[in-house]
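Quick sanity check, Protein p34:
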Amino acid sequence: MSRTERIAIGSIVIGLVVLGLKTLAWRLTGSVALMSDALESIVNVATALAALIAIRIAARPADREHPWGHHKAEFFSAVLEGVMIIVAALLILREAWHGFQNPRMLDAPLGGLAINMAASALNGIWCWVLITRGRLLKSPALLADGHHLLSDVVTSVGVVIGVALAIVTGWAVLDPALAALVALNILWSGWKVMTASLSGLMDEAVDAPTLQEIRSIISDHATGAIEAHDIRTRHAGPKTFIDFHLVVDGTISVNAAHEICDRIEAALKRRLPEAMISIHVEPEHKAKHSGVVVI
């Protein structure tokens, strides 16, 4: 089992524990705001399951039907997570509306708030694990889960503060008002998760600093070639796809041209170990005098 899968399984376990704690807090108090927090935790568990499935699919080797691999499965998981976040937000808005119509004071508020705070602390620790490991492992599914969990932590803190204010002031309407604010924040979080994932599904190129590094590596290790042009990149989960045309002297042997390609590939893989590289060798009359000029 890979490290990414183990972390995804950990997300499911943490999500179930947090869901249990937040549900208990809601049952103790009857708070619409705490109920909204518990609803979001249901989404956390569901999306953690989706992330685990996507990670396992993405880890499958290339086959006849998928010669480029299954790496984009993680992007589909992140889009699904965004959709589920938005659905949860709409459910919370509905409950908040009912709360506005029939506001009431809370039961056993201090015990419920303490339990909710403990659940939020656990979420905060796991959120840090997901974001740091997701970046390290270049996993869109883990990163999406981590950023979603971060929004959950922020809203949970806001809910606790707001419910405490409702108790102190006696303004029961603050409870559904907070639930509505939580829902709006969740909607924004879901939108960000979806747009970030769609860029991967649309074969977005690597960021500008990484592209500049790629160009520099080609230039530094293409001794014997004339130029490299039509450099294209895209990313899919941990994989970075790079392809370009390498112009060489038309009189050199196939072996010599191949050695140049091997040297460039080795250098690129030292910087991007998961890179998939395709180089199209061309004779000098195909030169465009653009891109990366070697000599």
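Posting the structure with no commentary besides this: The first helix runs from residue 3 to 29.
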